[in-house]
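STRUCTURE:
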């Protein structure tokens, strides 16, 4: 049993922390909303802390899953941040999807305190988090990863160390770029088929057995046809992720013409009131035109 602090009980963090508790570990949680933390305690047991520093005190591992770079800095740094409560030799595992820059910044701050740091963003969405079937992309040292891997496995189907600090976040950017283009292609294909008068249930059944098959097709095509978007990974979150990708590409010189275009399409979805719709709502733009 490991003594663990968990920071952030959002859509992803709530079930991920639950898997660690179910795995027999001693988990103390912190969340900005005390009501959310109280709900988690009622469901899973464990303990609650008033600040990240308090949660991290005495912990062997601190896990974090919050919204963005600024949220991450807020829970990690400062007098009430987790780093202030972490003892030497402990490891901070960040499951937030954030920039590679903030990962390097926090890793440097961790080193000054003789604390380990792993950037470990996840893929698999809410369903993957609830089912303990996430893919975790990690950056950091082999030594730290080896120690943290058995705990990450509590909520993951795959966890891979991809290189030095920042490599996990950069890999997550690749993941999001691939998804963005794929969902737009799926949306166009579905809309085309519907306008052509095809039976899309049969069409999807056929093409999902060939080269067009994808996770998005298997899990989102049917609801895209029905115009249902009230679940899954929100447009607001995807736009945040694409902004990170585009900023990184501007620094590295990589060209992202499709991602930039899809980001504009998501902005239109937001304008239509779809900020919390699933990312498959790209098809809604085509259906309404």
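SEQUENCE:
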């Amino acid at each position: 049993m490991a003594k663990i602090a968990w920071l952030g009980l959002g859509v992803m963090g709530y079930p991920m922390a639950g898997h660690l508790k179910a795995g027999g570990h001693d988990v103390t949680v912190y969340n900005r909303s005390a009501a959310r933390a109280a709900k988690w305690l009622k469901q899973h047991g464990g303990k609650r802390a008033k600040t990240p520093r308090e949660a991290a005190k005495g912990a062997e591992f601190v896990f974090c899953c919050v919204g963005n770079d600024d949220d991450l800095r807020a829970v990690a740094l400062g007098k009430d941040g987790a780093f202030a409560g972490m003892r030497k030799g402990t490891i901070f595992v960040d499951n937030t999807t954030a920039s590679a820059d903030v990962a390097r910044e926090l890793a440097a701050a961790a080193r000054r305190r003789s604390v380990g740091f792993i950037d470990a963003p996840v893929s698999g969405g809410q369903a993957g988090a609830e089912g303990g079937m996430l893919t975790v992309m990690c950056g950091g040292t082999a030594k730290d990863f080896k120690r943290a891997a058995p705990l990450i496995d509590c909520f993951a189907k795959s966890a891979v160390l991809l290189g030095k600090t920042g490599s996990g976040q950069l890999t997550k950017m690749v993941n999001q770029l691939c998804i963005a283009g794929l969902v737009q292609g799926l949306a166009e294909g579905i809309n085309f088929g519907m306008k052509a008068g095809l039976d899309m249930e049969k069409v999807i059944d056929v093409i999902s057995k060939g080269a067009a098959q994808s996770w998005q097709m298997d899990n989102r095509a049917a609801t895209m046809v029905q115009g249902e978007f009230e679940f899954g990974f929100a447009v607001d979150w995807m736009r945040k992720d694409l902004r990170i990708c585009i900023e990184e590409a501007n620094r590295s010189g990589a060209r992202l013409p499709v991602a930039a275009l899809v980001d504009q399409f998501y902005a239109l979805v937001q304008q239509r009131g779809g900020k919390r719709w699933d990312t498959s709502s790209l098809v809604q733009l085509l259906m309404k035109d």
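REMARK: The mean pLDDT is 97.
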